[in-house]
Amino acid sequence: MTGQKSCVDLIHYGPEAPSCRPVSLGESNTYCRQLARSHYENFTVASYLMPADLRQHFYNIYAYCRWADDLADELADPNESLQMLDWWEEQLESRYAGRAAHPVFVALGPTIESFDIPIEPFRQLLRAFRRDQRQTRYETLDDLLSYCECSANPAGRIVLHLARSHNAENAILSDLICTGLQLANFCQDVGRDYVRGRIYLPLESCREFGYSEADFDARVYNASFRYLLESEVDRAEAYLRAGVPLVDRVPSPLRVDIELFVRGGLAVLDAIRRAEYNVWRKRPTIGKWKKTQLLIGAWWRALVR
Fold first, then answer.
1. Which CATH number do you get for residue 70?
2. Cα separation of 168 and 153, whole Å?
3. Angle between helices 223-242 and 252-274 (to 10 degrees)
4. Same domain, 248 and 285
5. For residues 47 and 32, what is the distance between their CA atoms, to the nearest angstrom?
6. Same-domain pairing of 155 and 300
7. Residues 109, 228: one domain?
């Protein structure tokens, strides 16, 4: 392969990997578990809160998303990323046709079959990753929300299948939470995203508050930027809070997990506010003590429900 290598193991498990013996289900589960535990700052903590019988399934779902995300963001050439995402979708389709060689899909097979997860949410995630290769600006809020429909909401719907709680009402609430989390991440990562050439704040909002592309390029922190980001933070919070009723609509073993994700998103938004919206200077994050407080609070509320 040309260009920069992905964070994931393309050498051993990519399309150009040499032929080797088939991997067993046990080896594949271990691979997905190790991949999940070595990434995403909040996932390791959350994974230990999940019911033991669901934990491996969450690892498998995460491994699928991690691979797709790295193929989209960690290769130097967008055209190469598109080719790799096409290859990844071919692996997905093979899994649904009853064939799997890649460890992620060997592990994912029992998850898909046990919870009757349709292929569409997996495909939607790939559509969002492809869109990232072609689109770097979003003119309107509706345009940005259409991106969230594929980039964030499918993950929540997959979780609903794992909770055996997927229905129309729950899907709407899950979409609100996932969109809120995605919007919160956009506010948190303005600087990181711009380094990658992307702006995930609606351009119509930028114009409304008088913040230009040149200001992004110069990383200008001024009143216009503060008011712009304040508006986006408030919007993200509204989505998160609107989805809170989902917590009481899923089985009790998963309520702590769902609430923790919501409150984690709200905590990120609070961190942005405490930084007076200056995400250019430093990326706002949640400290270990705050994470512990969130965990204890979610656990206690689950006990007294």
1. 1.10.600.10
2. 13
3. 170
4. yes
5. 13
6. yes
7. no
What is the percent of the chain with per-residue pLDDT over 70, rounded to a whole number? 86
Query: For the chain, what is the domain count?
Result: 2
Residue 21 domain boundaries:
12-134
Residues 128, 7: Cα–Cα separation, whole Å: 19
Which conformational region is residue 143 in: left (phi greater than 0), alpha (psi within -120 to 50 degrees), or beta?
A: alpha
Of 149, 161, 176, whose CA–CA distance to 61 is shortest? Answer: 161
Model pLDDT, residue 255: 87
User: Are 113 and 219 within one domain?
Assistant: no
At 45, the amino acid letter reads V
Is 184 in contact with 269 (CB distance < 8 Å)? yes
Q: Kindly tell me if the per-residue pLDDT of 42 is higher than 90.
A: no
pLDDT tens, residue by residue, 44-57: 445 556 788 999 99
Q: In the predicted model, what is the mean pLDDT of residues 23-35?
A: 94
Does residue 6 form part of some domain?
A: no
CB 294 within 8 A of CB 260: yes
Residue 3 within any structural domain of the chain: no
pLDDT tens for residues 286-295? 766 555 555 5
| Amino acid code (one letter) for 136 | T
* Any domain includes 2: no
If you search the block for the tokens 């948190």, which residue do you land on? 188
Band (10; pLDDT cuts 50, 70, 90): confident
Do 33 and 61 contact (CB within 8 A), yes or no? no
The answer to whether position 5 is within a domain reads no
Regarding whether 139 and 99 lie in a shared domain, the answer is: no
Confidence of residue 198 (pLDDT cuts 50, 70, 90): very high
